[in-house]
Amino acid sequence: MAEKKPDAALRPVQGLPGSAAPSGVTHVRTDPSGEYVVVGDHLTQHPELSLTAIGLATHILSVPDGTPVDIRTLVERFPEGRERIASALRELEAHGYLRRVREQAESGRLVTRTYVDRATMTGQAAPRGG
Fold first, then answer.
1. What's the predicted TM-score (pTM) here?
2. Distance CA 33, CA 66 (A)
3. Which domain holds residue 86?
């Protein structure tokens, strides 16, 4: 019987470090040189949240205070559509990652304010409800 030869080693991808893992994800870690968002594993690995909800939560964390995160604005920004975005916001609200409150603005008009507790989103405090 002929001697079995080991598989040829894979060539490394140019510009990426090698990995000891035989397959799967390899994290390329670099020092952040600009702004970045810290997201808790409890959010990114949440077993009951959809990928859309997790992505939307990450987006909401990345925008400055005062940025509109209402359904209409998010539909203009992302291709998911009204129903998926509304559903994702409901998921985040149900699991305690955000709160939407109807308030009266100084003009007298009713507005919906979205409150996001950064400590909850980033894992510094346990989320409520989930």
1. 0.69
2. 25
3. 41-122
Nearest to 63 by CA among 37, 33, 39: 37
* 3-state class (DSSP) for residue 23: coil
For 1, the 3-state DSSP assignment is coil
Q: CA 7, 21, 43, 120: dihedral to nearest 10 degrees?
A: -170
pLDDT, one tens digit per residue, over 56-85 is: 999 998 888 888 898 999 999 999 999 999
Is the residue at 31 inside a domain? no
Burial 67-83 (b: 16+ CB within 10 A, else e): eebeeeebbeeeebeee
**Is 92 a domain residue?**
yes
pLDDT (tens digit per residue) in 26-36? 666 666 666 78
> CA-based angle 31:53:105, to the nearest 5?
100
Start-to-end CA distance of the chain, whole Å, equals 60
